[in-house]
Design goal:
The chain is α+β, with helices and mostly antiparallel strands. It contains eight helices and 27 strands.
Length: about 425
């Protein structure tokens, strides 16, 4: 059936048995907002790049007597992203009325995205393979997400000698050239995330450890007509940003040529410390092989605590504190969380009875997203680290947020989150 649908080019079809719409090879997530005009491309793209959107054949269930539009974000097999809205169900004729619009188009030729598995940076054959892939593409209408992935793959696939040209000798940026050269010569880097919209994109690599024991993450920001390349080095919790402003990535072939030219001679590379006053970087990463165990990287200033809790959210408004709140004293470095009291909240998918009826809406499905991207904690706002959406008939009825912020002894008595406190998502 799948082969038949692919050969016929089918993307969407009605399904009478389940009374829904079937999407073929289209990743999809339910949108909280039904506002057709003001859905953010950035937020849509970020959610579509989560594991929740990985399933490629989906049925959108439709209930009879539909009185409002149901909105979904989707990503096609070619990488384009947009919004699909079911506006009406004609019960007697078994018809659905839909509309959709693309927020990010894609006109790729027959070229596969570069693998998101490990890339051998020291392999000349790997580098050649990536170059050939770029040369085969229709660069004029390339999806910027693919352009970014391949650009970074080229950087990571550079041989040791070429890596020496990543910074102009004598420039501020050259102080990190040796570190980058060692990282590339050392072995493996992996492209972790790619976020993009119509005009810009961001790529992050996995964290690696250099010869000095420091953990380094590379991040690249790109725009279609102006390359704002930031190579962010997270060293001892201080970010050093190399700002680059003169590479045009509109064409993939030209981008490769300009990359070589730039890295050999770039007169205006500057080093900019990325400062976030009052903020503390935090990141959760999953521990492979251990279910619901997460590793927390956090260095708290002296006298500061991690204030955390679970909250029920409806239509973006916090309605109740649903438990699991506490303060934690976390020292410098990494520590693992087994979640203890919070474990049931992470395992809600086991059975609805594991939480109270007021928390789990009847008949709803729980969809979970855990943030593994770097986040900054502040004392005046909460950061969203974990989100569970209760979805029924294509609508998000309620969400549960796991939130955390910094707190000192002086403001611990202020309690947990109120509806007025801002959230960083």
């Amino acid at each position: 059936a799948r082969d038949f649908l692919h050969s016929k080019g089918v993307d969407v079809m009605g399904e009478l048995t389940t009374r829904g719409i079937v999407l073929i090879d289209i990743a999809i997530i339910s949108c909280v907002a039904n506002d057709w005009q003001h859905l953010s491309p950035e937020s849509l793209i970020e959610r579509l790049l989560t594991p929740l959107a990985a399933q490629k054949i989906r049925i959108l269930p439709i209930v009879s007597g539909l009185k409002w539009a149901v909105t979904f974000g989707f990503q096609t097999r070619e990488g384009g992203m947009g919004i699909l809205q079911i506006t009406e169900v004609e019960e007697d004729k078994k018809h659905f009325k839909i509309r959709y619009k693309m927020l990010q188009s894609s006109r790729l030729s027959n070229i596969a995205n570069p693998p998101k598995t490990q890339i051998d940076e020291g392999s000349a054959s790997s580098r050649k393979r990536q170059i050939n892939a770029i040369a085969a593409a229709d660069s004029a209408e390339r999806n910027i997400k693919t352009t970014v992935e391949q650009f970074v793959a080229l950087v990571l696939a550079s041989k040791d000698k070429e890596a020496a040209n990543l910074a102009v000798p004598g420039s501020p940026a050259s102080r990190h050239a040796g570190d980058l050269r060692k990282l590339i010569a050392k072995g493996k880097l992996r492209i972790r995330n790619v976020y993009s919209d119509q005009t810009a994109a961001m790529v992050t690599t996995t964290e690696v450890q250099d010869d000095r024991g420091r953990k380094v993450t590379l991040t690249f920001y790109l725009q279609r007509k102006e390359y704002l390349g930031h190579s962010i080095w997270q060293v001892n919790d201080v970010d050093y940003t190399l700002r680059i402003t003169d590479i045009d990535l509109q064409s993939a072939e030209e981008a490769f040529k300009k990359r070589i030219q730039f890295f050999k001679n770039h007169p205006n590379a500057t080093e900019i410390p990325a400062t976030q006053p009052g903020g503390v970087p935090i990141r959760f990463t999953s521990v492979e092989g251990l279910q619901n165990r997460w590793r927390l990287r956090l260095d708290l200033p002296e006298g500061m605590y991690l204030l955390q809790g679970w909250y029920s959210v409806v239509d973006g408004t916090i309605r109740e504190h649903v438990g699991g709140g506490s303060k934690s004293v976390v020292g410098a470095g990494e520590c693992e969380f087994a979640w203890k009291r919070e474990r049931n909240m992470l395992e809600l998918t086991r059975r609805p009875g594991s939480v109270s009826r007021t928390t789990w809406p009847e008949g709803a499905e729980l969809r979970v997203t855990i943030s593994d991207k770097p986040t900054t904690l502040y004392s005046e706002r909460y950061a969203l680290l974990w989100q569970g959406d209760f979805v029924k008939d294509g609508l998000v009825l309620k969400s549960v947020y796991y939130l955390a912020r910094l707190a000192s002894d002086a403001d611990m008595d202020a309690g947990f989150l109120t509806q007025q406190d801002p959230i960083t998502t």
